[in-house]
Amino acid sequence: MSEVEETLERVKVQSGVEGYVIASHDGTVLRRFPSMSQELAEAYAESMKHLGKKSRNVVRDLDPKNELRYLRIRAKKHEVLVAFDPEFLVIIIQKWTPASA
Amino acid sequence: MAPASTTNRGTKMNINTGATPTAKGPSTNKSSKADKSALPIILDSDNVDRTPQPLFVSSYSLLPRGTDAVGGLKVGTDDGIKFPTDTTPLPLCSTSPAPPPVPLELPKAPVATATESSEADDEEDKHKHKHRSHPSHISSKAAKEAAVSEFSGKSEDEEYVITLTESVTEFLVSIPGTQMSNDAPNYNAIKMRNQAYQKVLDGRDHADNLQERHSQTVNYAQKTKSVQAVPCTTSSVGCQSTDWDIHDAYIGGEGDEEELGKKPKELEVGGVEKLVRTFTSALAAKDCLLDIKEASSATFSKSVGTGTDEFDDEPKAKETEETNSEMIINKKKNLSIMSSTELLKSLNLMERAVQQNLYHDSHLRYRNYPSGEEALIVTADSKTSEEEVAMEDDEEGVSEELAAASKKNHGASMSKLFTFECELSKGRAATTMSWNRGNKDILAVGYGSFHLSDMEKDGGLVMFWSIRNLAHPEKIIRTVSGVTAIDFSTAHPNMLAVGMYNGTVAIFDMRKEKDFNVPVLESGAMSSKHMEPVWEVKWVDKGVERGESLVTIATDGRVLEWNMKKGLSLTELMVLKRIGNSDGVISRQASGLCLDFPLNDSSVYFAGTEDGHIHRCSCSYNEQYLDTFSGHSGPVYKLRCSPFLPEAFLSCSADWTVKLWNCEDTEYIYDFHSTDLNEVVNDIVWSPTSGSVFASVTGDGRVEVWDLEYSVIDPKLFYRPTKAESVLGVTPLTTARFSDNAPVLATGDAKGKVVVFRLEGMEVGESVDVAEQRKKLLDLMQPDEQV
């Protein structure tokens, strides 16, 4: 448990990280970055849940033995990284610079 | 004249004909023809027999008479095949005399009645044999009599008569014609009748006894009745079938091909578990409509399969009030999630992913992938490119010096790539490092102290760093005492030997998932273990039989060899003795500070002491040194044999110098000392790819990369801490290692930071020609012989 907390802390202090959401697979928000509002967190969780299902469908359609592990969406303003698991999702929002593209 | 009809052979007709022939006898033409329907004998006006011959001739006729079974055919003088000589009518054609037909008499078909028929035939035949040319069969006596009467006179001829009888005619279809000829016997009667009928027809219109009447059948009253069936209840169920859906249903969704081998029962059990899991998770969902209390009696219809993702929208219409039990379930679930290992894994993954965004460039450079800029540089003009490359150096002041100091543009440079640092390592000195031999991306760094300090009671650390995560090591081992030496084994890349400040030697197995920080073997309780800080541990391959063993050297002057066959056992290889004047010295033993085995030779080793002497010793001989190399005026901190040339070795010491030796010569060949260096040289390391390159790190935070080919006076590349960094105090760099699979040099400092430098321009080819490097080094080591 503490390892989870530690890792979460480390991720939080990485430069560029604007927020994170940890949600269960049905969209209920378990943890969120303090500066994020609940509505925004829920919106993220909900939309990522659907996107995750679709992506998982795609991945498994191509090869049923495969499994979706994580997804990265690079938008203009920031980048969203989502890690998937049958039980939960971890969503991290990070700013990205063109240099690291 | 010709008979118009075929002869009827039926008995019926014969009865009719029975009468007529006697009456008619040699009748007129007409009458004989009128009887054509039955009369077997047809005579024309000239009494010529015109009876048509049968078309079918049976072979029975050839059988001898007298045999009852056959039907009474005899061949004898009386009878025989008669060949009538006189003209007889042809069958079916009686207009002209024809060639004599064979008078054949067909026997009756049923053999069962042969006896009867034979008798009858006999009688017939008797009559017949007088009959000269009777072509057709006769089954009535009367007819035969008639026939006989005609030809009785001719029986005297010697003729063989074979008579045949015809079988009974069976009527299959008999459609008597409605027409009759004018010669019919009842012609008049029928004609009369016809006329009468015609009269009736004519008088139909106004006949009294003819009345037309219509009648209608009863029409029953009709009634319409309809019945409607109860429509079947229908419900639509949608499902999207996908490849993985089918796979899941078949496999169970959690296994791979191994699952196929499982018994159905096991799969069923697994399926039930899955069902229960899905069910509980569905129950715990916020919008679950199912009341928790009824869970036991609830059907499993709520558990949704994996395939119905499209239709899986939870009903948002009604929201039940949150019962206490639901909340509890939710909380429990949340807790379980938060503490699950999967979450940890995911978070680790995310951490790396986040870092990848930041350090992507660095990672690429580490791996030696050409980035966009570098690719451009390579194609550009060499001179300008070298200058550009040289200018890439981070340090502001240094680049100018570099350009000035270099005699020619060598096109190489060194720049900081990234720093391994974490909270835990801050403040501890990185005393030693070792790249893993198996997975060459993992760097193990030992943290401890060189001197007895306050940090000692906190113990030591070994951290395993990977470039994927710069903020946190992959694994951490905490040790009781500060770590002063580590080495990964080559034969078993998961084994790590650790030498500590309190003299303990421990071996860890990194393959273990959980207990990797518990040493597999430890020298803790052994009586003859080191009592002083262990400065060097080295795995040495002693050959096939003995395997790999560990050799350590410590301040107590002893060189010990450890064996892991049964637990940990040690043998003392050597006790380093002081040489020279031993008066006034506290101990006759010298303190050993470093140790190295030359390439390919595990029986000889070099040991460096605090006195500044380097001794070459043999493993099998623990009394005397083989050689002594003196030259250093301070303690020899590190000793390194060349990975290409076994005779060459480097040594660095507190006397600010690095010396290159040839083991055959007790005098050093080269002495490397940067002009402005006023600090100890803590570590030296040969480059694994180039035989003439080595790096050194000093107490003033300097990193110098020397290339013998380039110059022996100045380092080819160096890195000095910037003025900004050195404001807070110079951090001595304590250890350095080249990486085997990447063009990087890792250095550790006394504050716990591990900085990784990227070397550009140094040849890091895919394959290193060992012989070539050897030769290069050898040549360079013999400067006097060069022109």
Automatic annotation (TrEMBL), chain A:
Primary localization class, coarse: cytoplasm
Superkingdom of origin: Eukaryota
Listed Gene3D superfamilies: Dynein light chain 2a, cytoplasmic (3.30.450.30)
Any one GO molecular-function label of the UniProt entry: dynein intermediate chain binding
Pfam families: Robl_LC7
GO terms (BP aspect): microtubule-based movement
Gene Ontology cellular-component terms listed: cytoplasm; cytoplasmic dynein complex; microtubule
Compartments it resides in: Cytoplasm, Cytoskeleton
Protein family according to the UniProt entry: Belongs to the GAMAD family.
Function field: Acts as one of several non-catalytic accessory components of the cytoplasmic dynein 1 complex that are thought to be involved in linking dynein to cargos and to adapter proteins that regulate dynein function. Cytoplasmic dynein 1 acts as a motor for the intracellular retrograde motility of vesicles and organelles along microtubules.
PANTHER family: DYNEIN LIGHT CHAIN ROADBLOCK
Protein name, UniProt field: Dynein light chain roadblock
Organism annotation: Triparma columacea
Organism lineage string: Eukaryota, Sar, Stramenopiles, Ochrophyta, Bolidophyceae
UniProtKB/TrEMBL annotation, chain B:
Keywords attached to this entry: Cell projection, Cilium, Cytoplasm, Cytoskeleton, Flagellum, Repeat, WD repeat
Compositionally biased region (Acidic residues): 387-399
WD repeats: 629-671, 681-709
Positions with biased composition (Polar residues): 1-31
Pfam families: WD40 (PF00400)
The keyword Cytoplasm is annotated on this UniProt entry: yes
GO molecular function: dynein heavy chain binding; dynein light chain binding
Amino acid composition bias (Low complexity), ranges on this chain: 85-96, 105-117, 136-152
GO biological process, one term: cilium movement
Top-rank lineage group of the source organism: Eukaryota
SMART domains given in the database record: WD40
Predominant location: cytoplasm
GO cellular component, one term: dynein axonemal particle
InterPro entries registered for this protein in UniProt: Dynein_IC, WD40/YVTN_repeat-like_dom_sf, WD40_repeat_dom_sf, WD40_rpt
Compartments reported by the entry: Cytoplasm, Cytoskeleton, Flagellum axoneme; Dynein axonemal particle
Positions of the UniProt region annotated as Disordered: 1-38, 85-156, 302-324, 381-400
Name listed for the protein in its UniProt record: Dynein axonemal intermediate chain 4
Organism of derivation: Triparma columacea
